Amino acid sequence: MRYRIGIGGVYSIENFNKSCNEAYIASSINNGQTIVHYDDINPDINNNDVYPWNLETAFLNYIVSGDLNGAKEIFKSIYVWLSNAYISDVYKIKTKLIELAFSIDKVIPYKIDNLNILKERFVLTVLKDEELNEIRRSFLQYLSEISFEIQNRRQQQVDDIISKVLEFINKNYKEDISLQDAAQYVNISYHYLSKIFKNEIGKGFTDYLTEFRIEKSMQLLSNKSLSIKEICQEIGYNDPNYYCKIFKKITGMTPTEYRAACRIRGIMLVKDKFLRNSILVVLLLLLIIQTALIFIKLYKPYVHLFSEEKNKDEKRR
User: Fold this and answer.
1) Does residue 180 form part of some domain?
2) What distances in angstroms separate CA 74 from CA 70, 184, 286, 299, one per listed residue?
């Protein structure tokens, strides 16, 4: 188990919190030592003059990209600076974190319905906190909640983009379309669409479009009146040789071989259908015969009785 021990300065009992805060800051410094004294911290880390705006910018960038772990790592450094700069004034730390929360609000590129509720809850919580650890935990909790909402909203946006791109392909696969055309259609960058399309679909745009076209051509090959060249043009290719090459690469056979296989399969299906119908007729006849035999068996005694009564009547006469 890895751990670090921070040791604060020696103060009177009235300044116990100050010593605790110093110990927390010392334990947050990653200098390779297991035990770190606050008084031994590098003066560069203890520089209170300039707020690390570069860290805040990096922090906000991680938030926008949805990288919660990256944002937490940067926040550690920001919080160490705040804790060190305002060691004797916890209220200033709270104020800065509230400002940071509002900065997050400004850079989020999505509309989050319950953002104000989350932010209000964080502000009320952090104002009640007194210890540095409590303040830190409250902000990290808010950070996790915001990141979760951003991820959900981002996924919804990605799903909407992919849905529109698939619709674009379905409507325009007969034309000479490319990833750039699809990107313009959904109004996003070429590189971003390439990334999210592969992540969501599991294959690149070009591969998906090719397989989609080949699948459409397989349906058209069942139509005997269409030539290979006509089918090729119908799915967006101008070169029949290229189409045949791609078709074989994906299916393992040429379009002509596939068409022949479909014809044989169709004949077999007809024969199977005829055989199934013949079997059904035989089963139906057997059922009729069996029903007739049961009927005869059930009503035979009554037929015999009727014959005896008829004979008696004739004798009386």
Assistant:
1) yes
2) 6, 35, 83, 95
